[in-house]
Specification:
single chain; rod-shaped
Length: 74
């Protein structure tokens, strides 16, 4: 914990860990949970947008006129 985030760690005069502020850890975990939820929401939005983009691309391909051949009669 002290390597990742030293904020909730209390040290004594010699620098050894004396105590941990557990109330700060709860807040840190809550923030991480909220961030994870945001990431999941963004992933869902990206998935929906990708599906919509694929549908539009398919519709555009289907609406392209077929190539026409011109006969040159000389």
């Amino acid at each position: 914990m002290a390597d990742v985030n030293p904020d909730p760690i209390l040290r004594d005069n010699t620098g050894k860990i004396a105590s941990v502020r557990y109330e700060q850890i709860d807040a840190m975990l809550l923030n991480e949970f909220k961030e994870h939820q945001k990431v999941q929401q963004l992933e869902k939005q990206v998935e929906k947008l990708t599906t919509s983009l694929q549908k539009v691309s398919t519709q555009l391909e289907a609406s392209k006129p077929a190539p026409q051949t011109v006969l040159n009669r000389q």
